[in-house]
C-alpha cells in the first residue's frame, strides 16, 4: 500500500526499495542479464539499507554501478575483507557507499548494502551478469530468474557472518512492497520456433520474417510472486559451434584477459547402449524436513513438496531392474533408513519399500543433509553394483559448500543425480552436488511434473558411462590452446558439453581455421566429434566468453570464503579480479567520493523484506528451530540384517522362479495417495518384473471391465498364467 511515508511492511517500517527492473538478452545459449534496483529515501533521516536476494548459481556477475541523483559511480571488485573495510570507513565518515557480495556459504545468495542514503535521494543500482543456459530434454533452452529466497536452515553450525543471518524480514509473496518488470530479447541464427513462460507474458513479437530475433516482456502489474521461467525453442539446437573472442592485451598485459578465448559447444551423437545396465546400488535420499510441507509453487491447488516427492519415488522404485540393490533414506534434523543396508530388488522388497513410502511425512525437523550423506558413503560398496545416489530436496540449507565438498570427496565411487523441489530451491546446492559427482540436476516448480525428469535421470543411470573423454586441438603453427574448463568425466546421450580455452601465440591470417576434437569410448567403441571453426576473434565489449570461462574455473576451484583450499585461494582471487567476476573471495565496492558534504544526521537501518512462499511461514518454526536428536532409526532388528552380498533373508528371489506376491495396493488406495493421476496409479500396481495382475483394480484404473481385459489377452498367455498380464511397460520411456 502507498502512504505518505512510502511503501510499508507489516511492521509499518518504510521500504526504500521501490522496484526491480530486469533486461534480458539471450543470444543462442548465453544469457546477458542487467538488473536495476531502484531505491528512494522518503524519510527525514539518512538510511543504511540491506537487501538479500537469490541469483542462479551459474551467473557470472561482472559489473556493479550506482546512479545517485543522476551521478554514475562504478564499483570496483576488491578482495572481500578490503571491500568491507572500505565500506565501513566510508560509512563512519558519512560518505555514501554501496557493497555487493556473494554469501560466504552459498554462491546463489547475494547481499546488497546501501550506506548513507540522504533524505530525498534516489539511487539506481545495476548489476550485470552472464550465464550459460541449460538444455532441457525436449530441446528447450531454460532461463530462470530466481524470485523466492526461502529461509535457509542453519543447523548446529556457526553461520553468523552469512548474508542470511542479517534476519531480514520476510513477507508473503502477495505482500511484496516493491514492483518488478522484465523485458527480454532473444536471437538465434537458427530461428526461433516459440517461447513459453510460467508467468503472464506479452505476445511474442518477431523482428523480421526469418524469426531469428524476438522480444517478449512480463505483462504490466506482474507481482514477483514466483521464479520467472522462460523456455526458448530454436529450430536447431544440436549443431556444434565454436566462438572465438578477442582479448584485452593493452589493459591486461599479463592477466587472464590478455589472450583471445574460445567457447566450444559439442552435442555428441552418443548412440543408445546396446544393453542397458541392469546392476547397481540405487540409494534415494529424500528430504523430510518441515519445509517440505510447503507447496511447490504459489499457484492454486499446488501440490505439496513432500507429496510430489513421494509420488516420484514410487515411480522410481517401480522402474528399477530386477537384481539391483536399493535403499531409501529420509532426512531432516534426524534421519531414517528403510532397510539397515541396501537390499536386493525383488517383488517383496519393493512392496516393503512402497509401504514405507506411504507413511513418509515432512516431520523430521530441519534440513541437515550432511550426516546422512556421510552415513551412505561409509557403507561398504557392493561388488559389481556401482552406487547411484538420487537426492530430492528443497535445498533450504546454509552450509552449501560443506555438502558439495562431501559429495566431491566421494565422486570416484558414485554418481549423484539431484532434484530441487519447489520455488526457492538452492541452485548452488542442487547443481553443485550433481556437477562434482558426474550426474545431472533438475528443478521442479509450478505445473512442472517431477516424474518425467526423475525417470530420465534413472534412464541415464542405467546407461553405461561414456569413458576416456578427451578434447584436443589442431591449430596453425605458433598458436596453442590452454584448457580452462574442469575435466569432464561423464556424458549422457542428449547432453551438451561446453569447454573453454585461452588461445595464446600468434593469430594467423584472415582465412585460417582450426579444428577441435571430442573423443570418447562407449562399450569398447571409440567415438569422435569434431568442429572446424574460424580463427578470427570477434570483439565483445562485455567479454562474455572470457567471463563465462572464468566462471567455469571458479565453479571448480571456489569452495566458499572459508573452505577454499589455500593452494586454490590465490588463483581464485586473481582470476576473479582479472575478469571482474565476483567470487566468494571478492566483493564490489563503490564510494561516492564527490559528495559535496558529509551526510548529516543519525543513520537509520532499513532491511528490505524478501518473499517467501505462501505456507512457508506456517512451518518455519518447525524447521528453523528444531533440534531433534541425531539418531538413525531402522524398521528391522539387527538380527534380521542381511549381508551386503546376500539376498534379502527370508524372501524368495523372482529370478529363482518364484511368482511375485499379490500386490497390496488397491485402486481406492491408489486414488487416495496419488489423486487422479491415472498414469501414476497404473504404475503403482505394477509388479517388480513389469507385469500386472489381471484384476478389478487394474481394470478400474484403465476404465475397463475385467471381462474386457481378459478378452484382450492372447489365449496362450492366459493358458500360461491366468492371473498376470506379462506385457511390460518401460516406465523409463514414459514422457521423456
Automatic annotation (TrEMBL):
Family annotation (SMART domains): VIT, VWA
Origin: domain of life: Eukaryota
Task: Please state every residue range assigned to the domain named VIT.
Answer: 1-131
* A Pfam family this chain is assigned to: VWA_3
Which ranges carry the VWFA domain?
A: 281-462
Q: What is this protein called?
A: von Willebrand factor A domain-containing protein 5A
Tell me the organism.
Zalophus californianus
Q: Taxonomically, what lineage is the organism?
A: Eukaryota, Metazoa, Chordata, Craniata, Vertebrata
Gene that specifies this protein: VWA5A
Amino acid at each position: 500500500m502507498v502512504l505518505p511515508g512510502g511503501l510499508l511492511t507489516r511492521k509499518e517500517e518504510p521500504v526504500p526499495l521501490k522496484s526491480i527492473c530486469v533486461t534480458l538478452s539471450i543470444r543462442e545459449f548465453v544469457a546477458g542479464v542487467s538488473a536495476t534496483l531502484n531505491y528512494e529515501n522518503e524519510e527525514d533521516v539518512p538510511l543504511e539499507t540491506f537487501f538479500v536476494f537469490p541469483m542462479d548459481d551459474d551467473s557470472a556477475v561482472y559489473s556493479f554501478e550506482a546512479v545517485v541523483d543522476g551521478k554514475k559511480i562504478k564499483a570496483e571488485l576488491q578482495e572481500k575483507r578490503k571491500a568491507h573495510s572500505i565500506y565501513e570507513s566510508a560509512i563512519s565518515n558519512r560518505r555514501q557507499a554501496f557493497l555487493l557480495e556473494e554469501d560466504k556459504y552459498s554462491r546463489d545468495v547475494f547481499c546488497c548494502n546501501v550506506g548513507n542514503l540522504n533524505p530525498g535521494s534516489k539511487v539506481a543500482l545495476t548489476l550485470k551478469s552472464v550465464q550459460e543456459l541449460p538444455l532441457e530434454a525436449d530441446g528447450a533452452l531454460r532461463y530462470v530468474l530466481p524470485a523466492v529466497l526461502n529461509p535457509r536452515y542453519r543447523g548446529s553450525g556457526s553461520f553468523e557472518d552469512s548474508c542470511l543471518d542479517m534476519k531480514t524480514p520476510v513477507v508473503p509473496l502477495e505482500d511484496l512492497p516493491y514492483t518488478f518488470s522484465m523485458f527480454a530479447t532473444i536471437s538465434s541464427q537458427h530461428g526461433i520456433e516459440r517461447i513459453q513462460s510460467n508467468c503472464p507474458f506479452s505476445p511474442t513479437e518477431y523482428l523480421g520474417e526469418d524469426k531469428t530475433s524476438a522480444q517478449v516482456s512480463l505483462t504490466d502489474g506482474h507481482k514477483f510472486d514466483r521464479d520467472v521461467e522462460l523456455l526458448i525453442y530454436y529450430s536447431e539446437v544440436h549443431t556444434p559451434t565454436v566462438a572465438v573472442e578477442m582479448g584485452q592485451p593493452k589493459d591486461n598485459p599479463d592477466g587472464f584477459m590478455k589472450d583471445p578465448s574460445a567457447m566450444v559447444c559439442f552435442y555428441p551423437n552418443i548412440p543408445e547402449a546396446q544393453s542397458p545396465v541392469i546392476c547397481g546400488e540405487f540409494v534415494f535420499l529424500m528430504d523430510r524436513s518441515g519445509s517440505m510441507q510447503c507447496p511447490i509453487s504459489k499457484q492454486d491447488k499446488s501440490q505439496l513438496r513432500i507429496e510430489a516427492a513421494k509420488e516420484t519415488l514410487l515411480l522410481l522404485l517401480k522402474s528399477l531392474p530386477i537384481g539391483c540393490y536399493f535403499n531409501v533414506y529420509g532426512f531432516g534434523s534426524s534421519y531414517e533408513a528403510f532397510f539397515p543396508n541396501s537390499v536386493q530388488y525383488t517383488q517383496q522388497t519393493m512392496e516393503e519399500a512402497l509401504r514405507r513410502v506411504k507413511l513418509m511425512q515432512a516431520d523430521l525437523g530441519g534440513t541437515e543433509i550432511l550426516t546422512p550423506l556421510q552415513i551412505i558413503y561409509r557403507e561398504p560398496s557392493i561388488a559389481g553394483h556401482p552406487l547411484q545416489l538420487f537426492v530430492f530436496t528443497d535445498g533450504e540449507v546454509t552450509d552449501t559448500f560443506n555438502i558439495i565438498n562431501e559429495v566431491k570427496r566421494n565422486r570416484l565411487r558414485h554418481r549423484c543425480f539431484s532434484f530441487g523441489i519447489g520455488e526457492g530451491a538452492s541452485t548452488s546446492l542442487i547443481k553443485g552436488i550433481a556437477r562434482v559427482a558426474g550426474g545431472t540436476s533438475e528443478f521442479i516448480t509450478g505445473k512442472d511434473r517431477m516424474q518425467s525428469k526423475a525417470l530420465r535421470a534413472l534412464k541415464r543411470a542405467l546407461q553405461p558411462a561414456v569413458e576416456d573423454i578427451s578434447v584436443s586441438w589442431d591449430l596453425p603453427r605458433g598458436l596453442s590452446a590452454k584448457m580452462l574448463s574442469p575435466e569432464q568425466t561423464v556424458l549422457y546421450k542428449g547432453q551438451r558439453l561446453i569447454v573453454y580455452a585461452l588461445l595464446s601465440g600468434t593469430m594467423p591470417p584472415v582465412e585460417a581455421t582450426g579444428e577441435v576434437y571430442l573423443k570418447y569410448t562407449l562399450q569398447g567403441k571409440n567415438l569422435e566429434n569434431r568442429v572446424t571453426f574460424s580463427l578470427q576473434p570477434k570483439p565483445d565489449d562485455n567479454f562474455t566468453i572470457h567471463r563465462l570461462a572464468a566462471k567455469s574455473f571458479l565453479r571448480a576451484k571456489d569452495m566458499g570464503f572459508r573452505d577454499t583450499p589455500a593452494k586454490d585461494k590465490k588463483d581464485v582471487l586473481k582470476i576473479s579480479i582479472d575478469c571482474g567476476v565476483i567470487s566468494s573471495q571478492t566483493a564490489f565496492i563503490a564510494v561516492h567520493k564527490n559528495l559535496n558534504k558529509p551526510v548529516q544526521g543519525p543513520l537509520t537501518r532499513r532491511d528490505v523484506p524478501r518473499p517467501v512462499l505462501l505456507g512457508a511461514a506456517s512451518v518455519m518454526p518447525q524447521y528453523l528451530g528444531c533440534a531433534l536428536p541425531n539418531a538413525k532409526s531402522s524398521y528391522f532388528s539387527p538380527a534380521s540384517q542381511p549381508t551386503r552380498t546376500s539376498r534379502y533373508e527370508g524372501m524368495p528371489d523372482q529370478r529363482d522362479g518364484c511368482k511375485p506376491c499379490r500386490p497390496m495396493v488397491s485402486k481406492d488406495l491408489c486414488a487416495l495417495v496419488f489423486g487422479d493421476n491415472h498414469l501414476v496409479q497404473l504404475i503403482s500396481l505394477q509388479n517388480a518384473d513389469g507385469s500386472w495382475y489381471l484384476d478389478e483394480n487394474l481394470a478400474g484404473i484403465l476404465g475397463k471391465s475385467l471381462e474386457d481385459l481378459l478378452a484382450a489377452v492372447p489365449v496362450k498367455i492366459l493358458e500360461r498364467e491366468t492371473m498376470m498380464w506379462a506385457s511390460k511397460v518401460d516406465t523409463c520411456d514414459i514422457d521423456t
